[in-house]
Amino acid sequence: MLMRGLAAAVIVAALDQISKSMVLTYFGETECAFRGIRVTSFFDLVLTCNRGVSFGMFNSPGIGSLVFTIAAGAIVLVLTFWLARVRTGFLAMAIGLIVGGAIGNVIDRLWFGAVIDFLSFHLPNAVCNSVWNGCWPAFNLADSAICLGVAAMLLDGLLLRRDAPEANRGEDVSP
Q1: Who is most buried in 9, 24, 46, 62, counting CB within 10 A?
Q2: What pLDDT score was predicted for residue 132?
């Protein structure tokens, strides 16, 4: 299962970086900038940089990408250790999605000092110039993979677990 999860992580991180590169190229930028175009009444393609964490919290240059990069790196290490112990393909894929998304965002923090976000959904015809005001914060493919991975882990933990046989050396032996 380790290889399945790692393959998912590599694919997610690669697709995330490719999509961000395409957005930078589309807007003619080589680094963080603030650009946007209206695509539909409820979706904008934007180029924005998040120096903080989820939903733009702590989005100030002073708090630092270094702290968030180190935290994400530690989380990736813990999840990779867990991944080496799982025995179900579903859980391995869920962990792989989270690891790949975290790696994709860490690459941004190391390269740009912030995470590039570009998908902006909102209520029809809303003007997105504040945190809510009918607008969901912009996000990227890595963020989506992390959310899907967490949802899959919750599904696995809450609904898909069965009585497990006795574990050997602390292995996760869930079906």
Answers
A1: 9
A2: 57
